[in-house]
Amino acid sequence: MLDLQQLRYFIAVAETEHVGQAAELLHISQSPLSRQLQQLEGRLGLTLFTREKKRLRLTPAGRDFLVEAKALVAHAERVQQRAADAGRGKRGTLVVGYVAGAVHAGVIGKALQALQQQVPLARIQLRSLHSAEQFAALQRDELDLGYTYAAPSVETGLVSSLLLEEPFLLAVPAGHALATAGTLDLNGQPLVAPLSWHAREELLAACARLGWAPDVRFEAADPAAALGLVAAGLGLAFVQKSLQPAAGAAVVLRELPEAFTLRMQIHCVHQGSPSPLAHRLMMVS
C-alpha cells in the first residue's frame, strides 16, 4: 500500500526540484525527506528522479507517477473532507420513512425544504412504510428517521415527538344524501377504511362510540386514494383535514360531531442518538 505522506513528500520535491526547498515547505529536515523518497522508490521499484547538479529532475516514469500521485492525494483529501462534513452534519445521505399523511399534511415537504437550505449537499432517500414497519426498520438501523401515525412503544428504545395533530373530516360523494343531511348517521353506509388493521380498528371504535356501524367495503393505504373512491361514488371515507384542498367538486367534506374525538397524528421517530444530519432534520421538522 502506498503511504499518502510519502506521496505528499514526493509531490513537494517534484514541484520544487530541490530537497532542501521541499523540506522547508514541509517543515522537516532534509535527511528524513531523502530517506522517504528512497523508500518510495524502493517500494515502487522505480527511479523517480535523476540528479543534475543541485537539482532533481523527474524521470519519464517519475512524471507519469506524479500525475497519479496528485490524483490519489486529492481523492484522499476529498474523502477526508466529506467524512468530516458528514460528522458535522454538513453532507451525507439520510434514509427517511414516512406515512402518506405526513406528505399530505406538508410535514415532510417543509422539513426537507428547511434542511436543503441548511445542508445543500444532503441526499435524501424516502421510503413509504407503515408505522410499525418504520419502528422495525429504525431498530435495524435501516432508517435514520421516520414520520409515523403513532408513537413507538417504550420497549423499542426509540424516541418520538408529536409534530402534528389534526381532525378528521367525513368525505361524502357530492350526490349522496349525507352530503346535505343535517344529522350524520353512518349505520350501514359503505366505508373506505384504512388498510392498516390498527388504524381501522381505532376508526371503527370511534364510530361505535357515536352509535355508528358503517360497512367496510374498501380498504386503501393512501388517503388520496380513498378520496378517489369517494369521488367515484363507491363509499364514504374519513380523511385528514389537510386534504381538504384536494377533495375536488365530486366530494363533499363534512365536519364530524365533537364526540368524534379521533385525531390524525404525525410523529417524528428516531433512535436515541441520531446522526448529525438526522438531528438537523429532526430539529426542522
User: What integer is the average pLDDT?
Assistant: 90
Number of domains: 3
Give the DSSP E fraction (strand runs of 2 or more residues): 15-25%
CATH topology of the largest domain: D-Maltodextrin-Binding Protein, domain 2
- The CATH homologous superfamily of the largest domain corresponds to Periplasmic binding protein-like II
SSE string: HHHEEHEHHEHEEEHEHEEEH
Annotation, overall tally of beta strands: 11
- Spatial extent as radius of gyration: 32 Å
**What would CATH call the architecture of the largest domain?**
3-Layer(aba) Sandwich
Q: What is the percent of helical residues?
A: 40-55%
Structural class, judged by helices and strands? Answer: alpha/beta
Anisotropy-based shape: rod-shaped
What summary fits the major beta sheet? 9 strands, mixed
User: What is the rounded distance between the termini?
Assistant: 45 Å
| Low-confidence residue ranges | none
Q: What is the CATH top level name of the largest domain?
A: Alpha Beta
Number of helices: 10
